[in-house]
Amino acid sequence: MKKDSLIKGTLILAAAALTARFLGLFQRVPLDYMLDKDGQLAFAVANQVYLLLLVVATGGIPSAISKMVSQRYALGRPEEARRIYKAALLFGAVTGLLLATAMFILAPVYTDIVKKPIADLAVRAIAPALLLFPIIAMMRGYFQGRQFMAAGGISQIIEQILRVIGGIGIALIVLAWGWGDAWGAAAVTFGSVFGSIGAFVVMVYFGRKLRRQDLAEQARKGGANLRSQHGSGSELRFRSIYKEIFSMSLPAVVTAMTVQFLYTFDSTLFIRLTERFYDLETATHVFADYTIKAMSLAGIPPILAIALGASIIPVISSAFSVGNMNEVQRQSSLVMRIVCFTGVPIAMLLTVASYSVTGFLFQSPSGSGTVALLTVGTIFQITMMTTNSILYGLGRPKTPMYHTFFGLALKVVFSIALAPFLGVYGLIIASSICFIIITLMNVRTINRIVKLNVLGRRWVKYIIAVAVSALAGWGAENGILAWTDGWADKLSYMVAGIVTAAVVGALYLVLLAALRVITPEDIRSFPGPLRKLLTKVLKPFYRKAL
């Protein structure tokens, strides 16, 4: 097993997360066909509270472990890193047991609060997944700290495969027996239990493989005892480890739970906040579109930011711990540049093609407006998440936490103010305001420590490239939909989506080069396969430089 560089590690995690996200869509999409709106809401309520509890329990701790482990290895203290790993596994086991028990017992109380008692079975069915996922999260944090990203990536893919096959398979059987949507939703959520078992097995396999590698490496060094050179890791007490973990992870928990808090807030209070705007039947349909369709598709653009965050923390932390500020500046600027060039166009594409994508994947394109607005807001979610990770790597975990508190307060205030008059759009606008404010505050703080050099004077040209590409994509989608009006609906949506993607992708890339937004230096910073592809595509614009 070789260590992964920032770019390679990011690509591994991004590819795994993207694959896992698409596999997750194969769980969400059938719900629109298998369950009625109440059944879909039961699944959404159970899934949201489960994800929130999981983030609260583990959200910041894997990042803390990643940073602590990378620092120990950078300073030549591997025994302390392994001691930290053991403490984290113990915490994950205890936390998982407590949360799973509490979620199972208190399920009726929570479903009564959200006025969806039909979700009781679904909440209880997903609770056992909390037994293993906190442990899995600790293991992924350790591997990220050692800069071995493949283990976490493969475990994500296996998790989603088993989750989809298990959940949908059992749901089809339950519904065929005529047990109803409440049991059907519970069967789908129970798929997460299968996923947790598969992911745990994968992580245990890689854990043993890494342990054998460490022993072999120590043997090659002549059996030198690192403990005698750097102090015994056993001297590091669990109490001091937990103190360090929690001092670092508490701020990270707050920042990690931002998106999940917003979604859970909207899911829990949707009916109450929008009752002046919708009648109950309309609110139920809009809520189902928001949670099943919009939230599923809006989860695709931030995948790169999640992968970048996991990869950048140990890299920046290691450079910062030894005072290499030039490397810190280079890596921080690079990660923001990658976000701009890759994350934004994905969000832009799903926004302009929301009608076709929604119509193709689900029963109807209803809720496509919600999909479009929520997806365009993920542009700011991506920048928020990435800047959070940079600050965390710079040893400033409390700073984004304070920024997040301020942003969440704005989310609550604007939701209460806008939802009664704009419905679901008011809730989404409030979330986007939260993301924007946190991003701006984060960037200001980062620039005080190390000056970011993302695009420099190229920002105006970059915005022009994005705007023109989006406008052309919107025109292409509407033109194809009109041209294929007499076709079968699914075929029309599919063709419109493909053409829109081609127009947006090609025009965006050409404009980046024609306007000199992307430079030869940027291209050379990308990984080999992508660098070769971009070199061929952009060579007409940079004949001498490339």
Describe this structure as you would to a colleague:
This protein has 546 residues and is mostly helical. It is built from 23 helices and no strands. α1 runs antiparallel to α14, α15 runs antiparallel to α17 and α16 runs antiparallel to α21. It is globular and about 75 Å long. The protein starts with 5 loop residues before the first helix and ends in an 8-residue tail after the last helix. 55% of the residues are buried. About 1% of the residues have low confidence.
Fraction of helical residues: over 70%
Secondary-structure class: mainly alpha
Q: What summary fits the major beta sheet? A: none
Q: Regions with pLDDT < 50 over 5+ consecutive residues?
A: 226-233
Provide a count of the helices: 23
Mean pLDDT: 85
Summed up:
The protein has 546 residues and is mainly α. 82% of the residues lie in helices and 0% in strands.
